[in-house]
Predict the structure.
Amino acid sequence: MAEPRLRVWLARPLFEDVTGRLDQHFDVVRSAVGNRYAGAEIAARLRDVDGALVTLVERIGAEEIAGATRLRAVANVGVGYDNIDVEALGAAGVLVTNTPDVLTDTTADFGFALLMAAARRVTEAERWLRDGHWGRWSFDTLLGVDLHGSTLCILGMGRIGQGIARRAAGFDMRVLYHNRSRLPEAVERECRAEYADLPGLLQRADHLVLALPHSASTHHLIDAGALARMKPTATLVNIARGGIVDELALAAALAGGRLGAAALDVYEGEPRVRPELLALDNVVLTPHIASASLATRRAMVALAVDNLVAALGCGPDAGRPPTPVNAGALKR
């Protein structure tokens, strides 16, 4: 008699032609379009499955897996995984995977798009035009800040940070970076980047891009004190995680003329955005879409599927998921 098939939960509809591969190996529990699960709802769906494929909006921790005695793997679609308590899942023997690499270039592209939009006041100019103000144009209307010849500072020099640094070369920008550990000299040369300590980085930045992970040590790293070190003409771009920035302090600095402009793709309470930020003209706001190109999102989902299939002992890479976060959980 054939063994019963493993069961997995697909938290939301994602490229059916890609996620359809799960049906070759598992019984798949699919969620309806538009559903957003939290807390007890997630716990209920994890209770009777062996694996799950989730996105950044599904938050999974100790409470959500308390009754999930069959659960062996959670495949997260995204390079960041602060929606998942990796320590709690690892302690329960649940493998967590993510999708790095495939979104690096697309995210770096978007980081530069945000930088240009904020520094050159692109979205502000569009609103101004649509509101019928062009008839009042003057020579100093909507003056922005140049990218070429300026100093770009990158906080967090992983794959995405390095991608941003390489793009800066085309704009003749000087690149400084700060990272938890300094990069090898060969990588610095490739990226044309110089290492700086954090206070020096903040003080010298004409433009600052955040590309570091969110953790207890980086929570509100960019607070009122950090913002006070920056030039009043500087531009801040956050494509990392919202919790890295004290958003109330940022809004106050932007409103008070102590910071020139900002561009945010991530927010501490997303999908909620603080009204203090929404009220400002000198901030560009996008809804966490840095990786949102068709090709990249498909590649992310495909990698998550590969991870889940392998983590549950199926397919050609059985037992060897490509990108585990807590590989030690495989041994439990």
